[in-house]
Amino acid sequence: MNLNFNEKVIHVNDETFEILFDELTIQKRVKELGEEISKDHMGKVPIFIGVLNGSVIFFSDLIRNLSINCEVDFLKLSSYGDAKISSGNVRLIKELNADIKDRDVIIVEDIVDTGLSIVYMKSLIQPQNPASIKVVTLLHKKEATKYELKLDYIGFQIPNKFVIGYGLDYSQRFRHLRSIYALKSTME
Ligand code: IMP
Ligand code: MG
After folding, report:
1. What's the N-to-C CA distance of the chain in angstroms?
2. How far is CA 33 from CA 3, 9, 38, 63, 183, in A?
3. 84, 127, 155, 187: least surrounded by Cβ within 10 Å?
4. From the CA of 55, which ligand is nearest?
């Protein structure tokens, strides 16, 4: 299969993904988020915690749009189940290395779907007594979120559709696409 950076539509077997946000739209919003987070943390050195694997692309673009100092660390979670449906189970695969006691922690997620991952990560991080915990997510599927959550910074609200690209995968593939694509429903 040939993948072109400027593709408007992506076919995966018999499924069709249509462009939702192009590269320029994403870059513009990520820059705004970087500026907003910098303004809110002036004079501080937060620790940005990336959630592997999905947040890596957003994470690297976001921190390069900061005008404050920062440190970075990563967590890895796994969830099992269908490639397109959140399994309702989360497991920690890689824990934090940084000492986050009394530090301002900012969790960086690619997407908040049911919200379970965020609830789980907060329950892991809170007992380590950070000064604060904030969450930045590039995408939020508000209709799908089942947990009471505070999301401090949201890139885009999106409909409850399966999306790929810019870090988001379909069975581990398509993370490297520069734009974000949504699965076209068979009803459309
Ligand atoms: P949650 O725990 O249900 O909020 O799910 C969060 C995780 O599920 C994200 O960090 C993604 O890894 C994955 N996920 C949720 N929705 C999508 C999607 O539309 N495309 C790809 N991955 C997704
Ligand atoms: Mg993820």
Report:
1. 25
2. 29, 27, 8, 10, 26
3. 187
4. 2
Distance in Å, CA 81 to ligand 2 centroid? 14
Quick one: what percent of the chain has pLDDT higher than 70? 96
**What pLDDT sits at residue 79?**
72
CATH for 19-186 (3.40.50.720, 3.20.20.140, 3.40.50.2020, 3.30.565.10) = 3.40.50.2020
Instruction: Choose between 74 and 86: higher pLDDT.
Output: 74
Q: For residue 80, what pLDDT is reported? A: 65
List pocket residues of ligand 1, CB cut-off 6 Å.
51, 54, 86, 109-117, 162-163, 168-169
The ligand 1 atom at the shortest distance from the C-alpha of residue 169 is: 21
- Active-site option among 82, 113, 152, 169: 113
- The ranges assigned to domains in the chain are 19-186
| Residue (of 25, 26, 8) closest to 17 by Cα position | 8
Average pLDDT, the chain: 94
**Rounded to the nearest whole angstrom, what is the distance from the C-alpha of residue 63 to the centroid of ligand 2?**
18
